Amino acid sequence: MRLSAARRKRTFSLLALPGMSAAELRPLQHRMLASGHWFAGLPTSLQQALCASARVVTLRAGELLFQRGGLNDGLYAMLDGAICFGAVNAAGKEALVGLAEPPQWFGEVALLDGGRRTHHAWADSDATLVHVPVAAVDRWLAEHPEHWQCIGRLAAQKLRVVFAAVEDSRLRAPRARLIRCLVALARGYGQRDPPPQPTLRVSQERLGSILSLSRQTINALLQGLEREQLLVCMRGAVRILDFGRLLELESSIQ
Predict the structure, then answer these.
(1) Any idea what DSSP says for residue 2?
(2) How far apart are CA 140 and CA 134, in angstroms?
(3) To the nearest whole percent, how much of the chain has pLDDT over 70?
(4) What is the pLDDT of residues 52-93, one digit of tens each?
(5) Residue 163: inside a domain, yes or no?
(6) Alpha carbon 138 to chain centroid distance?
(7) Residue 190 confidence (pLDDT) above 80
(8) What range defines the domain where residue 227 resides?
(9) Burial 211-237 (b: 16+ CB within 10 A, else e)
């Protein structure tokens, strides 16, 4: 998939929701954050500190959140929509390495090593996020160094996903890789419990980019799973009809 030069060079901005502040996070948004495994497992004081410093921002589909090599500006959590992570070469060819949906948190890598952003991040659809500025996070962690382990745990969860993906790409057939990818996306890479019939807002092109497989291969594999009545392909999405059965298939993969 190729991105236009205008999109690749687009200057982006974060648009605060009118009248919103950290204290005015809506109850539904609080519940969304609390539904995530990482946030729910934090000490209460850290949960409160993150929410107290947070602001709600929105992006339109296609807008950049941050650029590869950009300065660390803090932590983010998804409230609605989806954010893609990847790279784009000089010719505009896109490589997708990850996808974040509610209630996933991200941005911890640059926080841990003090480095710059590792990939571009852009809105795959209209998106609403919580943003906790880096100054607020640094200040809290300086006063409560025991909470660094919580940030490390968030990064470690994703490192496990990366190791599994590398292993899959070397050792497993495309069908097995797709099944494991669908399960990982449904679980928010371990950050949420999916409903029995989750809808994944990811296109076949996106799946192909994540798995380094052609769209034709992804389409054929999805049609096979569709014939098994495990899922239904939709425009820009995949609806899983029986997540329990998909989990059984994943657990049987050697």
Answers:
(1) B
(2) 10
(3) 91
(4) 999 999 999 999 999 999 999 999 999 999 999 998 777 777
(5) no
(6) 23
(7) yes
(8) 173-251
(9) bebeeebbeebbeebeeeebbebeeee
pLDDT tens digit sequence for 214-227? 999 999 999 999 99
Tokens of 88: 């784009």
127 DSSP 8-state letter: E
Same domain, 51 and 11: yes
**What pLDDT, on the 0 to 100 scale, is given for residue 61?**
93
**Cα 113-77-99 angle, rounded to 5 deg:** 85
166 in a domain, yes or no?
A: no
Give the span between the Cα atoms of 144 and 142, in whole angstroms: 6
Residues 52 and 119 in one domain: yes
Contacts (Cβ under 8 Å, ≥6 apart) of 74: 107, 111, 131, 132, 133, 134, 135, 136, 137
CA distances in angstroms from 172 to 148, 204, 230, 240, listed in the order given: 35, 19, 20, 22
pLDDT at 223: 96
Per-residue pLDDT, 14: 37
Q: How far apart are CA 220 and CA 207, in angstroms?
A: 12
Q: Is residue 167 included in any domain, yes or no? A: no
Token representation of residue 185: 């996306």
Query: 98-113: per-residue pLDDT in tens?
Result: 899 999 999 999 999 9
d(CA 100, CA 188): 7
- pLDDT of 183 > 90? The answer is yes
Edge-to-edge strand list for the sheet holding 127-133: 15-16, 55-59, 127-133, 74-80, 105-106
